[in-house]
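Hi P.,

Sorry for the delay on this. The queue was packed all week, but I finally got your sequence through. Input first:
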Amino acid sequence: MSLFEDIANDLSNKISQGSYSSGDVLPNEVELQKIHQSSRTTIRKAIDILVEQKQVIRKRGVGLFVAPGISTQNILEMAGIMKPDSFVAGKQIVKEHFLRKAGIYYGKLLHIKEDDLVYYINFLQSKESSITKEVLILPLNIFPALNLSSFKVLTVLEMLNLGKEQVMDLEQDFQLIVADSETSRQLKISKNSPVFKIINRALNANKKPIAIEIRYKNALNTKYVVDF
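Then the structure:
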């Protein structure tokens, strides 16, 4: 067995054993050279094997990431959701993130106590000429080892499957609102412009809510089909 195959097997074993989890950032090529005392060509060949095996994602200019154990497509198929375009990742920029108490509103939506801690993550996702404001509410007890670097490579739906429980279904609430000052600035639209607000509750196999995603999109350049 060649050296690059040995290195590929070593990294593959570390991924399968949990040393590197889904969405984790791997050491870059220069760091891997030092770790394995080998040339950059050898490292690239090893990474090529893992990319081909879909264990690693190489994102140019960003780095190497462990591929998610379950893909957006698989989640959509399991949940019977036929709107995959809604969950395609674009360029994502995290604006703010912090831990806070769930409070009455999110506590009720997530079926947890008001004092339970949740991650609040506010970020923008741009795809082509469209900007979407996203807010994720993730209970700390389900996402104890949240890694924000995963946003660079994973879709939101794949991010939701990095916790202790898996997404098996989604509940969606659809509203038409007007943009406040912050939302209008982030979406680059006029204040009081019409905005679609979509609230997704991710559910586990027992139909228990495990995460909330809130999405804001400019209603004037977005098409939605609603089936009754």
